[in-house]
Specification:
Elements (H helix, E strand, L loop, with lengths): L22 E3 L8 E4 L7 E5 L2 E5 L5 E6 L4 E6 L9 H16 L7 H14 L12 E7 L4 E5 L8 E6 L5 E7 L3 E6 L3 E7 L6 E7 L7
Parallel strand pairs: 7-11
Antiparallel strand pairs: 1-2, 3-4, 4-5, 5-6, 7-8, 8-9, 9-10, 11-12, 12-13
Length: about 220
């Protein structure tokens, strides 16, 4: 729910965030599960862009733009084709998460430990997932108007890809990022993010310079 600064305007419910774990919603009459969030943090995402609010559900390639009053202004369709989950990458994601999630079982009750183990394995069970992977992971802030969209990757240890959306809703740029880095802000000539060391899990702030590529 987004509450406008102008208290005379009503709050706008644009999406609900699920808790930790694998959460699917199947609308009445739908053949496929419609997910808000999976274990890898690809969930309903919203971002304030100028005087509008962008809302995206990764089950769809669409990003909806709303006015401050909650009126739908326009729709942006990302040029992303549906693809299946990468089985090898999902195994890698499970192996990365297992020490953290399963490592604490010894301090829990036997019933809780068993429940956590079952829950964890379900998160990586392809039979429980939609047939196609999310179209994107999240919307990212841009200081120079517009926004960026991080496309889906099964885990942060894979290289990343971002699309820049200008104020008119057009794709105006693409960026390939390094593995183990998640960008949180883009400027005209920089990308600010966080790098996670794959060996120690220690996180550090990183700053990259952006250079426009020359078309040939």
């Amino acid at each position: 729910m987004i509450v406008p600064a102008d208290t005379s305007l009503p709050p706008v419910t644009v999406g609900e965030f699920a808790g930790y774990g694998l959460v699917y919603l199947t609308p009445p009459g739908a053949a496929e599960p419609h997910f808000l969030m999976d274990a890898l943090n690809a969930g309903t995402s919203w971002l304030v862009v100028g005087n509008e609010v962008a809302v995206g559900d990764p089950a769809s390639p669409e990003v909806l733009m709303f006015t401050a009053a909650g009126t739908r202004a326009r729709k942006i369709v990302l040029p992303v084709k549906p693809r299946p989950f990468n089985v090898k990458a999902l195994r890698e994601a499970r192996d990365r998460m297992a020490p953290v999630v399963l490592g604490g079982r010894r301090v829990r009750s036997p019933s809780r430990a068993a429940s956590d183990t079952t829950h964890f394995e379900l998160m990586f069970d392809l039979a429980k997932r939609p047939k196609t992977a999310p179209h994107f992971r999240r919307l990212v802030h841009a200081t120079n108007d517009g926004m960026w969209v991080e496309l889906y990757r099964e885990h942060i240890g894979l290289p990343s890809a971002y699309l820049r959306i200008d104020t008119e809703g057009r794709i105006s740029g693409r960026l390939s990022g390094p593995a183990n880095v998640e960008f949180h802000e883009f400027g005209t000539d920089y990308a600010l993010g966080v790098r996670e060391d794959p060996e120690t899990d220690v996180k550090s702030v990183v700053l990259y310079t952006l250079r426009r590529s020359r078309s040939r």
